[in-house]
Amino acid sequence: MALRLSVKPLPDLVAVVLWMAGALLSFSTTAIAVRELAPALGLFDILAARAAAGVAIVGAVALLRRRPLPARRMPLHLARNLVHWGGNYAWSYGVTLLPLAVVFALEFTTPAWVTLLAVLILRERLTASRLAAVSLGFLGVLVVLRPGLAALQPASLVVLLSAVMFALTAVATKALTRTESVLSILFWMNLIQLPLNLVAGRLFPGLPAHAFEGRHALALAAVCLAGLTSHWCLTSAYRRGDAILVMPLDFLRIPLIAVLGWQLYGETLDPWLFVGAGLIVGGIVWNLAAEARRQAPAPVAEEAAKGA
């Protein structure tokens, strides 16, 4: 008797990784573009342009595909986007004042909050590997920051507040994916946040230090496009995997943005950053391997007939 192992591909796990790769690139592009635009446009104006582009692009896609965009759970849409709007502003404010790697490292307290909220609110299962991924990721963030590296600056506290807001947003997004399409979530996100940014921009106008130039137009286009694709990719990842699986993958933004900040702005490439990143990646690999084992079908024993 011979045993033949029947192993199927893991489409959900692979899809989560690919969608998150798109999200990592998009969020990093957004951070760089916001920093380039900040001297010429107020933050609320930048966010308003991003939301307007999102409404136009998602609306056009839905029209071409003849997809309705219902909001079956409007109270949750409103709550999610009010919190996300505040988090977006706080994060963008931090990007203009702090080194990019520090902003992302502070933001990555988010998975710890997501894990807690996903277990309490979404009733997701907290496995040992998921807990390890978040714990190692959080430990990696502490190694990156180290006591006194910028943690007491007011801008750092603002970014930490944005991390809590993003955690609430992540849990609300996962809840919405159970009944709403990705297009619907993105459309209502931008439609709700557009008037908030327009009103806030008039009440708290920015004071640009430089005139708007051609290079700023390119950065504005990048904000509009990457701001949309980042949430498209992230929301799609939530549709294919649990929030506790998706969020630790986002830790990879820290080493990526650190290298970009070093290349583009001459920011210090701290060796401790890569020690922390090693802990982060170790936790991610551990969790992905465990998720692959959990999703893989059990071996199927087939009797091979050999002769009569």
From TrEMBL:
Membrane topology summary: Multi-pass membrane protein
Predominant subcellular localization, coarse grouping: membrane
Domain of life according to the entry: Bacteria
Name of protein: Permease
Database matches in SUPFAM superfamilies: Multidrug resistance efflux transporter EmrE
PANTHER family, alphabetized: ACYL-MALONYL CONDENSING ENZYME-RELATED, SOLUTE CARRIER FAMILY 35 MEMBER G1
Transmembrane segments: 43-64, 100-122, 131-149, 155-173, 185-204, 216-234, 246-265, 271-289
InterPro entries: EamA_dom (IPR000620), EmrE-like (IPR037185)
One Gene Ontology term, aspect cellular component: membrane
UniProt keyword terms in alphabetical order: Membrane, Transmembrane, Transmembrane helix
